[in-house]
Prior knowledge:
This protein has helices at 16-22, 29-45, 56-67, 69-74, 90-102, 106-132, 134-145, 148-153, 160-180, 183-200, 208-218, 223-250, 267-281, 315-318, 322-335, 344-365, 379-395, 400-422, 431-447, 456-480, 518-529, 542-552, 571-579, 601-611, and strands spanning 535-540, 556-559, 583-587, 612-617, 620-628. By secondary structure, the chain is mainly alpha-helical. The protein has a five-stranded mixed beta sheet with strand order 2-1-3-5-4, with helices on both faces. This is Glycosyltransferase family 39 protein. Its EC number is 2.4.-.-.
Amino acid sequence: MTTASAAPPRTAGAGPVAAAWQADRPRWVRPAVSVLLLATAALYLWNLSASGYANDFYAMAVQAGTKNWVSLFFGSLDPGNTITVDKPPASLWLMALSGRIFGFSSWSMLMPDALCGVGSVALVYATVRRLSGPAAGLLAGAVLALTPVAALMFKFNNPDALLVLLMVVGAYCTVRALEGASTGWLLLAGVAIGFGFLTKMLQAFLVLPAFALVYLVAAPASLGKRLWQLLGAAVAVVVSAGWWLAAVALWPASSRPYIGGSTNNSALELALGYNGLGRIFGGDGNHAGGGGMGGGNAMFGGASGLGRMFGQSFGTEISWLLPAALIALVAGLWFTRYAPRTHPGRASLLLWGGWTVVTGLVFSFMNGIIHPYYSVALAPGIAGLIGVGSVELWRGRHNFPARIVLALMVAATGIWDFILLDRDSSWLPWLRYLVLVLAALVTGALLFGADRLRRAGVVLAAAAVVSGMLGSTAYAITTASTGHTGSTPASGPGTRGGFGGMGGGPGGAGAGRGDGQGQTSSAVIALLKATTTKWAAATNGSQEAAGLALNSDKSVMAIGGFNGGDPAPTLEQFKQYVAKGEITYYVSGGMGGFGGDRGGTGSIASWVQDNYTSTTVGGTTVYDLTKPLSGS
C-alpha cells in the first residue's frame, strides 16, 4: 500500500500487477504452504462421519443420484424422479459421483465437501499471493481454514462448500486475468461463477460486482478492451449457468421430476422467485418479518439491518475478524488513493473488499429466508482482507499512520472476540480473558514500537496473529470435532442443529418418524426393506421420506417435496402410481404444514385413509396400498 508500505518487488519489464507474483519466493514458503494445507485437510477430514448423513434432505438426493442417472442430473429426491431438491444439482453431482465410486455412505458423501474446503484454502492462498506476496497468502488461507462457519460447512452436505470453492476459483481466474489483461482467464472466471449458479443460484453472483470492479480498474488494457472483455465474461456466466436451465426447459415435463420449490415446474422461475428475489424481498414462500419462521428468529438470521452479521445468529459464525477486515479495507484504500491505477495492493483490496461489502450488505438486509451458515460465503473475502491488510500494514509499520491502524485492528479484534466468547461464558471461560490480555499487550507493543528492538519483530508479529485468531480458532476446532445434523447447523461448542434435524447415520434419528425413536424406526424400516416396487413407500414431505429412504436403502416418494407444499405428485398422478402397483406403503405423518395443501398432501392423505387398510407399526400408522378396503 502506498504510504503504508513499500510495494512488492518488481521484475524488470513487468507491469505493476504482474510484479508481485513474479517476485522470487523465499525458501520457507513451500514448507509453510504444505503445513497449512495438511493441517486444513486434517481438520476437515478428521472424524468426517461424525455428522452421519448431516442434512438428510440433500443426503436423500445424493443417495438417489447413486441409483439413477436421471436423478443425478436433475437432483431428484428419489430414484423414481418424483420431485427435485429446491436447489440446482451441481453439489449433488459431486457427492453422488463419489458415492458411485466408493459406495454411498456418510464418508463418501461428505468427503468431496471437505476437499472443497482444502481447495478453497489453497486457492485463497494462491490468489492473495499473486498480488500481495506469500506471507499475506498464508495468513489469508489460515484465516479461511479457521473460520468457524467454514469448519462447519466444509464438513457438511449443503451446497455451500462447492459454492465457496467455485467463487474462489472465479477470484483466482480474475487475478490471473489482471496480470496480462487475459481474455481467456476472464472467461474462465465467468465459467466458474456460472457453475456457482448451478450450485446455489443467484448467491454465486454476489461476487460479480467485485470481480468486474477490480478488472475494470486495474487491468493493464485500454478502457474499451476492458469493457469488451467483461461483456465476454458475462456471456460466459450466462452460457455456463444457462445450459442446465435450457436442458430442464426442453426436457418433456412428463418424463422428468418436478422442480422442487418452483410454482410452475420451472428452474428459471425457481432461480428468480423462491431462490432469487424472494430471498431478498421476502414473500414467494420466503418467511420474512419478526419471529416465528421469519427474520427475527435466530435460526433464520435474526432481524435485518447493519448489525445482523454481528448479532446473536451470525456473530460467532463469521464476525471474529470482520471489524479488523473493514478497518484494513478503509485504511488500505486511503493509503493507496494516489497509487497508479494498476497498483497490485489496491487491486487486491478492491477484490476482497468488494466481495465482503456486497455480500455482507445483501445478507444483512435480506428480508426472505436466510440462515447463519450462509455466511461461509463471506469467509474468503474477510480472509483476503486480513491477509492483505495485515501484511501490508506490517511492512509499513515504520510509518506512524500504518502502525496506528495495525494497533487498532488488533485492539478491535481482541475486544470483539471477548464479546463473542462472553455470549457462551460457560465454555472455556478463561479464553476470553486470555484473548483480551494478549490483544492489549500486542496493541501496546505496537504503539510503543517494541518491534524495533533486536529480533522482537518476529515475536510481535506472531503474537499479533495468535491474539487475533485465538478465539475463532478455538471455535473452529470445537466445531470440526462435533457432529452436526439438520437443515440449519450452527458452529461452536456442543452438538448444534436446527429446524429439520432428522439425525444422521444409518439407524439414527429420523428413520421412519424423524423423532429419533430407533425402535419405531427399525420396525418401519424392516417393512420397507422387504418391498420390491418402484417406490417402497410414500409420505408427506422430505423430512419423513429422507429417514425412510436413507435407512432402508429403498426409493421413497417425498410427496410435496421439502415442506410438502409442492404440487408433485398430484392426487391423480398418485392414484395412477398406486393403480400400477408402483407404491407399496403410505406412511402417515410427515411434514405438510408449511405448504398447506397446495401440493395436494392433504388430499392424498385423505384419499389413502378412505380407501386403504391401515396398520400400526411400532407406533406409526402405515397404509398398505396393495390392500384396498372392500368396496373401494
